[in-house]
From TrEMBL, chain A:
The gene is rnfG. It is a single-pass membrane protein. Its EC number is 7.-.-.-. The keyword Translocase applies. The lineage of its organism: Bacteria, Bacteria division WOR-3. GO terms for biological process: electron transport chain. InterPro entries: FMN-bd (IPR007329), Ion_transpt_RnfG/RsxG (IPR010209). GO terms for cellular component: plasma membrane. This is Ion-translocating oxidoreductase complex subunit G. The modification FMN phosphoryl threonine is found at residue 158. It is found in: Cell membrane. Pfam families: FMN_bind. The complex is composed of six subunits: RnfA, RnfB, RnfC, RnfD, RnfE and RnfG.
Automatic annotation (TrEMBL), chain C:
This is Ion-translocating oxidoreductase complex subunit A. The keyword Plastid does not apply. One of its GO terms (cellular component) is plasma membrane. It is found in: Cell membrane; Endomembrane system. Part of a membrane-bound complex that couples electron transfer with translocation of ions across the membrane. Belongs to the NqrDE/RnfAE family. It comes from candidate division WOR-3 bacterium. Its main location: membrane. It comes from the Bacteria. The chain crosses the membrane at residues 6-32, 44-65, 71-93, 105-125, 131-153, 173-194. The complex is composed of six subunits: RnfA, RnfB, RnfC, RnfD, RnfE and RnfG. One of its GO terms (biological process) is electron transport chain. Keywords: Cell membrane, Electron transport, Membrane, Translocase, Transmembrane, Transmembrane helix, Transport.
From TrEMBL, chain D:
It comes from candidate division WOR-3 bacterium. Part of a membrane-bound complex that couples electron transfer with translocation of ions across the membrane. Keywords: 4Fe-4S, Cell membrane, Electron transport, Iron, Iron-sulfur, Membrane, Metal-binding, Repeat, Translocase, Transmembrane, Transmembrane helix, Transport. This is Ion-translocating oxidoreductase complex subunit B. The gene is rnfB. Its main location: membrane. It comes from the Bacteria. GO terms for molecular function: 4 iron, 4 sulfur cluster binding; electron transfer activity; metal ion binding.
Length: 189, 202, 195, 336
C-alpha cells in the first residue's frame, strides 16, 4: 500500500491539508499581536522624530489629537497634533511635549503628506531653522514676535508661521492639565 | 536496535565531530548573513534550531507512511509549516529581530541542514533518535553562529551583546570590515582552517 | 520601486550580487565550483529554474494568495512549487532533450535546496515588482550567480595546484578567495542598489 | 475560529498539493524514459570507479553502450574477468575474460640518479612543470616527480617515494589506466598482471647523452635484443620494445643489461639443478649465457648457484630432461 500510486498523490494531499490548517491557525493566533506591533511601528515612525526616546504611545483624547508617550512603563511626555488653517489649507503639526510642558520638537507635515503651502514661502515651515525655534519653550513663549512672543516668523509667510505657532499654543493650553504633570521648579507662571 | 552509547553519540556528534557548518559545510547562508551581532546570530540559531528539531521529530514520526517517490515535497511542506510558524511568531513577539534577519527567516525552509538531516537521518530513525540528532546539530549550529556573531560584533563594533567591551577609542573607529560580507567570508575561512588544524571531524 | 528594468538588472547582477553580497546560495556555490565546466552547467540550470520559479510564484501570489488574503501560505506554496517544478523539469529533460539533461541534469536535484531560487521569489514580492521587473530581476540574479560561480571556479582550479599549507587546503582557502572576490564586488555599491 | 480563512487556506494549499501530485504522477508515467532494464542491471554489476579505462564516459556510459550492443563485454579491466562474466550472463552471451592489467613506472631516474637542471619554484604539479622546458629534471623524458598520478589514482594505489618517484602498490592498483593517460611525460604504462620483466626507461637518447643526464637510463646499446633467446625485443627509436606475447620472462635481458634498465617483478627466481640422469652432452653449457654450468663432457654436469639466474634455457634444451628448476619464484616459469 505504501508505494501504490493513489497513496502517492493522497499522502501529498493530506500533508498539504494538515499544513494548511496549522498555518491558518497560527495566522489567526498571531494576527492581533502583529497588528499591534505594526501600528506601534507605524506610530513610532510618525512620532519618532518628535519624541525619540518613547517606544510606546497611547491615545489620550477621542479625536486622538493628544497621545501619551511612554518609555517602557514610565511616561516620559505626550504628543499633540493640531491642524490650523494656513495660507493654502490646513497645516498639520505634530509636537512632542515633555512632562514640564516644554516642547521637545515639532514636525510640520511635508508637501508629500498633503501640505498645500506655497513652495519657497509657507513650505519653509517644514525646515529645521523655523521648527527648532520651538525647542524647549512653554506655551507662554510660543507666539510670533509680532504678537509679543519669541518665535521668529518666516519672512513673507506670516500666515503659515502664525498657523503653526497658534496651533501648538492653543493645543498646549487646551490640554494643560493632561500634559503638565511636574511643575516647573522655578517656573515663572 | 542500536546500543545505548551510539544514541548519545547522535547528540554529541552534532556539536564537534559532525558540526553542520564547520565540518559538513552545509547551512552556510545564515551563518554568514545573520551574524553581524551576537544577538541576531542567537536569534537566527534559535529559529533554525526550533525548525530543525520539530521537523526531525515530525518526519521521523510519519516516516513509515511517506511513499519514497514523493518524500521530498512532503518533507518540504512539513518544514515550511514550521518555518512559517516561527516566521509569524517572531513577527509578533520579536519585530526588531525579525526586521534584522529579514528574508533569512523564511529561507530557513531551504536551509541545507534541515532538509539534509530529514533526508539522511530522520527518514530512517526513530523519533527519540531524530530528536537527539536534531538537538545535536542545532547545538553545533548555534555554537558556530554564536562564535561568528560575537567575533564579528567584537571586531566590527567593539561591543558584546550591545554592551561595550573594547575601549571607546576602538569603538569610535571599529574595523567595519568584519561587518561587511568580505569579513564574514574571511572569518569563516579562518575558523575552518583552525578546525582543520585541530583535526576535528577526521 | 521606480527603478527601470536596466537598473534592476545591473543591481541584481553586480551591486546586490546574490552570492557575494547577499550570502544567499552559498551551499551550491562552494559545493559545485570546483571546476569551470560544472559551474557553467549549474548556472544554466539555475537560470532556467529561477526564471520559471519567478513567473510561477509571481502569478500564484498576485492571482491567488493576495486576493484571498492567504499571504501566510507564501513560503509553503513557493517552495512546493519550486520542488515540483524541479522534479518536473528533470523528468521532461530526461525524456525529450537527452544531451541537455546530461549536461544540466545532475544539478537539478541540487537546485531544490538552493536558497537563491526561493530568495528571488521572495524579493519579487517584497519589492512588489510587476511581472516584467520580476523577470529582469530573476535574469540579473541568475547572471550574478553565474558570474560569481564561474569566476570563483576559475580561481579554485588554480588554487588546487598552488602550494598551500595543509590546514588551509580546500575550503579555507576557498573562503578566503571568496572574501577577496566579495571585496571587489563591494566596489559596485557606489553605483546604486536595491536595498 | 475564523472558518472562512481556514477553508480558503485548506482549499488553496490542499488544491495545489493535489494538482502537483497528479501532475507528478502523470509525468512519472508518461515521461518515463524507457531505460533498458538490462542497462540498469549491468550498471549495478560494474565497479563504479568511473575511470574510463573501457574507453566509455564512466560506468553509466559503458553500461549504456553494452545494452545498446555497441561495446565489447569484457573491456572493463578494473572489474576483470569476474565482472565480464556477470555482464555476459546479463547479456546472455559467452564472454572471454579480459586480461587484467597493472600500472608500472617505466623510469628509474629519481632525485639521486637524475640531477635537476634548474631550480623549479612553480606549481607543484607535473603537468604545469612539464610545460616549462620539459620539467626541471636533467633528463627531459623522465618522470618529473610532482605526484600528479598520486592525485588522479581513483583507488589511491600510488604514493610518492622519497626518491621523487611514484611507488605503485600492485595489490591496490585496478589497472584502470587513468594515471597512464594523466602523466604528461608518459612514464607510466599498463602491462599484463602476469608479466614479470619490463623496461624501465623512456629516454630516446643514445649512449653518452643518456649517461650525462641519468645514471640508470637505457643507453640503447641493443645488447638485450641480441641476448633474448626468443627474439622478443627489437630496438625502436633508441629503446628496446618488448613483444609481450613472445616474451617468456626468462630474465636474461634484465641480467645482461649494462645499466640494469629492466625490472623483474618476480619476488625471487629459481635455480637450475642437474639430476643424475645427465649424460654430460654439454648442450646446456652452450646455451647458458651466464656460464653457470660446468663439468667434463660425458660426466654429470653441475650448476654454479651464484651465477645461475634461473632463466630456464638449459631446462628447455636438455635432451634427457635432466635439469629442473628449484626454489622460490613468484610465478611458475613456462616449462614446455
Amino acid at each position: 500500500m505504501k508505494d501504490s500510486r493513489t497513496w502517492m498523490v493522497l499522502s501529498l494531499f493530506i500533508t498539504c491539508l494538515i499544513s494548511a490548517f496549522a498555518l491558518s491557525q497560527i495566522y489567526n493566533l498571531t494576527l492581533p499581536q502583529i497588528e499591534y506591533q505594526r501600528n506601534v511601528a507605524g506610530l513610532k515612525a510618525a512620532f519618532g522624530t518628535v519624541m525619540p526616546e518613547a517606544d510606546r504611545f497611547e491615545p489620550a483624547t477621542p479625536d486622538s489629537s493628544v497621545w501619551l508617550a511612554f518609555k517602557g512603563e514610565t511616561r516620559i511626555g505626550s504628543i499633540i497634533k493640531t491642524a490650523k488653517q494656513g495660507y493654502g489649507g490646513p497645516v498639520p503639526v505634530t509636537a512632542g511635549v515633555d512632562l514640564q510642558g516644554r516642547i521637545v520638537a515639532i514636525k510640520v507635515a511635508s508637501a508629500a503628506e498633503g501640505l498645500k503651502e506655497t513652495p519657497g514661502l509657507g513650505l519653509k515651515a517644514t525646515e529645521p531653522e523655523f521648527r527648532d525655534q520651538f525647542r524647549g519653550k512653554t506655551a507662554a513663549e510660543i507666539r510670533l514676535t509680532k504678537d509679543g512672543g519669541t518665535i521668529q516668523a518666516i519672512t513673507g509667510a506670516t500666515i503659515t508661521s502664525r498657523a503653526v505657532t497658534d496651533g501648538v499654543r492653543e493645543t498646549l493650553e487646551k490640554y494643560r492639565e493632561m500634559l503638565i504633570l511636574q511643575q516647573e521648579p522655578d517656573s515663572e507662571q | 536496535m542500536n546500543s545505548k552509547p551510539s544514541r548519545i553519540s547522535y547528540l554529541t556528534s552534532g556539536i564537534i565531530k559532525e558540526n553542520p557548518t564547520l565540518i559538513l559545510m552545509i547551512g552556510l547562508c545564515p551563518t554568514l548573513a545573520t551574524t553581524v551581532t551576537a544577538r541576531d546570530a542567537l536569534g537566527m540559531a534559535a529559529a533554525a534550531s526550533f525548525v530543525l528539531i520539530c521537523s526531525n521529530i515530525a518526519i521521523s514520526a510519519i516516516r513509515k507512511l511517506v511513499p519514497d517517490s514523493v518524500r521530498i515535497p512532503i518533507f518540504i511542506i512539513i518544514i515550511s509549516t514550521f518555518v512559517t510558524i516561527i516566521d509569524y511568531v517572531m513577527q509578533a513577539y520579536q519585530p526588531d529581530l525579525y526586521r534584522v534577519l529579514g528574508v533569512f527567516v523564511p529561507l530557513i525552509v531551504v536551509n541545507c541542514i534541515i532538509l539534509g538531516r530529514a533526508e539522511a537521518f530522520a527518514y530512517h530513525h526513530g523519533i527519540f533518535d531524530s530528536f537527539l540528532d536534531g538537538l545535536g546539530k542545532s547545538l553545533g549550529f548555534t555554537l558556530v553562529l554564536f562564535i561568528m556573531g560575537s567575533l564579528r560584533e567584537l571586531f566590527g563594533a567593539g561591543t558584546f551583546f550591545g554592551s561595550p567591551v573594547l575601549p571607546a577609542a576602538y569603538r569610535s573607529a571599529p574595523m567595519l570590515f568584519a561587518i561587511f560580507p568580505p569579513g564574514a567570508f574571511l572569518l569563516i575561512g579562518l575558523l575552518k582552517a583552525l578546525v582543520n588544524k585541530l583535526g576535528w571531524g577526521r | 520601486m521606480k527603478l527601470n528594468p536596466g537598473q534592476i538588472f545591473l543591481a541584481a547582477f553586480l551591486v546586490n550580487n546574490i552570492i557575494l553580497m547577499r550570502f544567499i546560495g552559498l551551499c551550491p556555490f562552494f559545493g559545485v565550483s570546483t571546476s569551470v565546466s560544472t559551474s557553467i552547467g549549474m548556472s544554466a540550470a539555475v537560470l532556467f529554474v529561477m526564471l520559471l520559479a519567478s513567473w510561477v510564484s509571481w502569478v500564484l501570489y498576485h492571482a491567488m494568495l493576495l486576493p484571498l488574503g492567504l499571504v501566510f501560505l507564501r513560503t509553503a506554496v513557493f517552495i512546493l512549487v519550486i520542488a515540483a517544478l524541479v522534479q518536473f523539469v528533470e523528468m521532461f529533460l530526461k525524456r525529450y532533450i537527452r544531451n541537455l539533461y546530461s549536461a544540466m541534469g545532475i544539478y537539478l536535484p541540487l537546485i531544490t535546496t538552493n536558497c537563491a531560487i526561493l530568495a528571488v521569489t521572495f524579493f519579487n514580492i517584497n519589492y512588489n515588482f510587476n511581472l516584467l521587473q520580476a523577470t529582469v530581476f530573476a535574469l540579473g540574479t541568475a547572471a550574478g550567480f553565474a558570474l560569481a560561480i564561474i569566476l570563483f571556479a576559475a580561481i579554485r582550479e588554480r588554487l588546487d595546484d598552488a602550494p598551500i599549507s595543509p590546514a588551509f587546503k580546500g575550503y579555507p582557502i576557498a573562503f578566503i578567495g571568496a572574501a577577496l572576490v566579495s571585496l571587489a564586488f563591494m566596489g559596485f555599491t557606489a553605483l546604486f542598489g536595491i536595498s | 475560529m475564523d472558518w472562512s480563512l481556514i477553508i480558503k487556506s485548506l482549499v488553496t494549499l490542499g488544491g495545489l498539493g493535489l494538482i502537483l501530485g497528479v501532475i507528478l504522477l502523470i509525468a512519472s508515467i508518461k515521461l518515463a524514459v524507457k531505460v533498458d532494464e538490462r542497462e540498469a542491471r549491468i550498471r549495478s554489476v560494474l565497479p563504479g570507479a568511473n575511470c574510463g579505462a573501457c574507453g566509455y564516459p564512466g560506468c553509466d556510459g559503458y553500461a549504456a553502450a553494452i545494452a545498446a550492443g555497441k561495446a565489447p563485454l569484457n573491456s572493463c579491466s578494473v572489474g576483470g574477468p569476474e565482472v565480464a562474466r556477470k555482464i555476459g550472463e546479463i547479456m546472455g552471451q559467452e564472454v572471454t575474460a579480459a586480461e587484467p592489467k597493472v600500472a608500472v613506472l617505466i623510469c628509474r631516474g629519481g632525485k639521486n640518479e637524475a640531477p635537476l637542471r634548474f631550480q623549479y619554484k612553480g606549481a607543484q604539479n607535473c603537468r604545469q612543470a612539464a610545460l616549462l622546458l620539459g620539467g626541471p629534471k636533467a633528463c627531459i623524458y623522465g618522470c618529473v616527480g610532482f605526484g600528479h598520478c598520486v592525485t588522479v589514482c581513483p583507488v589511491q594505489a600510488i604514493r610518492m617515494g622519497e626518491n621523487r618517484l611514484p611507488i605503485i602498490d600492485e595489490r591496490k592498483c585496478i589497472g584502470c589506466g587513468r594515471c597512464v593517460t594523466e602523466c604528461p611525460k608518459g612514464t607510466l604504462t599498463l602491462i599484463p598482471r602476469r608479466k614479470l620483466i619490463y623496461l624501465a626507461c623512456v629516454s630516446h637518447d643514445r649512449g653518452r647523452a643518456v649517461k650525462e643526464v641519468c645514471s640508470v637510463g637505457c643507453i640503447a646499446c641493443g645488447l638485450c635484443t641480441r641476448v633474448c633467446p626468443v627474439g622478443a625485443l627489437r630496438m625502436e627509436n633508441n629503446l628496446p620494445v618488448m613483444d609481450f606475447q613472445k616474451c617468456i620472462d626468462c630474465g636474461i635481458c634484465a641480467h645482461k643489461c649494462p645499466t640494469k634498465s629492466f625490472i623483474d617483478r618476480a619476488p625471487g627466481r629459481p635455480k637450475a639443478s642437474i639430476n643424475p640422469r645427465c649424460t654430460g652432452c654439454g648442450e646446456c653449457v652452450k646455451v647458458c649465457q651466464f656460464k653457470a654450468i660446468e663439468g667434463e663432457p660425458g660426466k654429470q654436469h653441475r650448476v654454479i648457484p651464484e651465477k645461475c639466474i634461473g632463466c630456464g634455457q638449459c631446462v628447455l634444451v636438455c635432451p634427457v630432461k635432466a635439469i629442473d628448476l628449484v626454489g622460490a619464484l613468484g610465478h611458475s616459469v613456462k616449462t614446455i
